[in-house]
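Structure tokens please, single chain.
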Amino acid sequence: MILPLILATASLLAATQASALSCLRPDPATAFQRAADASEEYVVLNGTFTFDETAMPGDVTPDGPEAPPAHVPATFSGNYLTADGFVETYEGPLTLAPVCAGPWCGSLDAPADMLAFALLQDGAMTVEISPCYDMVFTDPSREALMKVVSCMQGGDCSPLE
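Here you go.
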């Protein structure tokens, strides 16, 4: 009687799928290409985002959130990308939009120094924070920033190694 119980338990455990979020390695050049290919308009920002981090969802919620996370008002202070590089300054409001995929949610600590691709709609900017962090890059390296400038100038836009 114990052997059938052990076999039944083992087969049940083997049939259970492990659940994990699978993301490609985030890359600024790939994000640039995605934004450039989109029908929407994006602004590439590099600087400090200040916001109430308690308004962000946790990175992982056991059963996923009951409703989509609320947008988080933020203030940005830094530069935006032009053909000449990150030379133009901007300081002002924008919205952070955390996104969840099942139990995994995009979330940030405040303040956040980031390279971010902000969707521009009706004069307002929104930065989507996905659980794969594919359009935001905290503490970007000089190499990452130079790669995005190269992309903007029509130069090498291959993913970083």
